[in-house]
Specification:
Elements lengths: L5 E2 L1 H8 L3 H9 L7 E4 L2 E5 H10 L13
Antiparallel strand pairs: 1-3, 2-3
Length: 69
């Protein structure tokens, strides 16, 4: 049995490798689960939600370098 825990924005962006503004934009487009209320002033996601979102994304491959002439 895996124990889930809450992940706040700072950790979520670190795990996903994106900026906070990108994460908020993804949340507004409903591509990720909405944040949950942890306390009166704290919101976050379950770690499993962040991991599931990360697994659903297409990996980005770096562009090939073009030799200068």
């Amino acid at each position: 049995m895996t124990i889930d825990r809450y992940v706040r924005e700072k950790e979520a962006v670190s795990l996903l490798g994106i900026s906070a503004s990108t994460l908020r934009r993804i949340e507004r487009r409903h591509e990720i689960a909405p944040r949950r209320v942890i306390t009166a002033n704290t919101r976050g996601w379950l770690l499993s939600e962040i991991q599931s979102f990360a697994a659903s994304r297409q990996p980005v491959t770096p562009a090939k370098e073009v030799p200068h002439q």
